[in-house]
Amino acid sequence: MALKRALISGVTGQIGSHLADLLLEKGYEVHGIVRRTSTPAKVRRPEVKLHSADLCDQSSLSEVVRVVQPDEVYNLAAQSFVPTSWQQPALTGDTTGLGVARMLEAVRHNCPGARFYQASSSECYGKVRESPQHEGTSFYPRSPYGAAKCYGHWITVNARESYGLHASSGICFNCEGPRRGVEFVTRRITTAVAAIKKGKQETLVLGNLDARRDWGFAGDYVQAMHLILQQPKPDDYVIATGVSHSVGQFCEAAFAHVGLDWRRHVVSDPTLYRPAEVDVLLGDARKLRALGWKPEVDFESLVKMMVDADMEMP
Ligand code: GDP
Fold first, then answer.
1. Over the stretch 95-113, which tens digit does the pLDDT of each residue have?
2. Active-site residue among 74, 145, 151, 221?
């Protein structure tokens, strides 16, 4: 059988790297989209074939899709950091929102039989209308990032309903792991735990310690993304663990893992609070579980995995 070809935008990011690992393991030919910068893009796996294009540039995206002729397209690229979205709302809308429309147009005109995955986000639920959140829960975004992700979600649904594209969304709750960007709260905590344990740092200053998130492992979530595209019919699925913890509880578990008391080291600075906060997220992934998916890594194991990885960093 001919190799399946996948095209990933956001291949240099956390989820993209795990997805590339998974697809290569499954025998796919994996292509990735990278933005041109003066420093070359880094991917962990040299087998990934890189193409230069930008989510803000329609013709470059169309050209990549035309040349690669992928069986599956995973749109993971975005301006993905919520605080930056208040500083750069228009850029966030352009990449995280309109970028999805451009990817869909590239597929529609150049490879309409390809299956399309959109990385929708639990940030769409924002000020949650009900708990836990499922595929039918109304959106109420609380940041320019959340608003842009809502547009991306609905333009994907619209492409499916207007043109019959095999376009699906995974409404992905916070996904974490040792490859998580260092500015996200879980990784801020685990890098600080390692630095404090090694005597290089005394305190960790955070914002809101009471916010609650449904944190899962990125390696588990990419399995869900692949599974979603193997379904005969395109659809939307929540990807979540169904368990939520506060930022404070994450700190407690992470510091305890190396024998430290988090209350001696963590300070909450109200000036770091966000202009509008997402207080609590909790996902109901029953629809996806009915397809046979379940997360393998629980909260405690995730925290330990991240702390252990940061302890090993030089
Ligand atoms: P998000 O859910 O995509 O915004 O992921 P983050 O990891 O950036 O933030 C998760 C939660 O942690 C949010 O409710 C933040 O307000 C809270 N938080 C508290 N302190 C910090 C911090 O120092 N950095 C970040 N990124 N978030 C923090």
1. 999 999 999 999 999 999 9
2. 145
Q: Which residues of 103-116 are buried (b: 16+ CB within 10 A; e: fewer)?
A: bbbbbbebbeebbb
The SS3 of residue 74 is strand
Dihedral in degrees, nearest 10, Cα atoms 83, 84, 86, 88: 180
180 C-beta closer than 6 A to ligand 1: no
Kindly report the protein residue whose alpha carbon is nearest to atom 15 of ligand 1: 208
Token pair belonging to 190: 């685990």
pLDDT digits (tens, 9 = 90+) for 63-82: 999 999 999 999 999 999 99
- CB burial readout 203-233, b (16+ within 10 A) else e: ebebbbbebbbbbbbbbbbbbbbbbbbeeee
Lookup: tokens for 181: 């960007």
214, 240 Cβ separation under 8 angstroms: yes
- Residues of the chain by 3-state class (helix, strand, coil), percent to 5: 45, 15, 40
23, two tokens:
């697809």
Distance set, CA 281 to CA 104, 212, 238, 243, 272 (Å) = 28, 6, 12, 9, 20
Residue pLDDT, tens place only, 257-303: 999 999 999 999 999 999 999 999 999 999 999 999 999 999 999 99
Question: Which H or E run includes 73?
Answer: strand 72-75
Tokens of 260: 């430290």
* CA pair distance 33, 95, nearest whole angstrom: 14
Binding site membership of 82 for ligand 1 (Cβ less than 6 Å): yes
Which helix or strand (DSSP H or E) is residue 205 part of? strand 204-206
